[in-house]
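re: ur msg from earlier - yeah i can do the FE2/S2 (inorganic) cluster complex, just paste it... oh wait u already did. ok heres what im feeding in:
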Amino acid sequence: MPVLTFAVSGPGNCVEVDGVPYVYARTVQGGSVLRAACPHRGGPLHLAVPDRTGRQLVCPWHERGTSLSRLRKEIPAVRNGATVTAVIPARAGSTVVHRHLPLSPELALGC
Ligand code: FES
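and the outut:
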């Protein structure tokens, strides 16, 4: 699995591995690296907002909730200042592209 380091905000805040985007997001419950495309139909979870409980991210396309704790458990990661290093669930030799993705304000607390 690729171990990748990228920015927690601004340019380069997204790594795309074999076409799947990952971003660092920080809510009131803490920070983590999340898959930015919904596993259901690819909705833009980087633009999602937490529900009233803070436990689910609500898809901006379908208003369907995805468990935030489940998303967090998928990607082991450690933040070090302005960067984060994450173990991405993909095969070795995957195509990696660094780029920028905007986050909803609720996912960019303290970034
Ligand atoms: S794409 Fe999965 S809930 Fe919208």
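cool cool. Residues 38, 40-43, 59, 61-62, 64 surround FE2/S2 (inorganic) cluster (CB under 6 Å). ping me if u need the other ligands too
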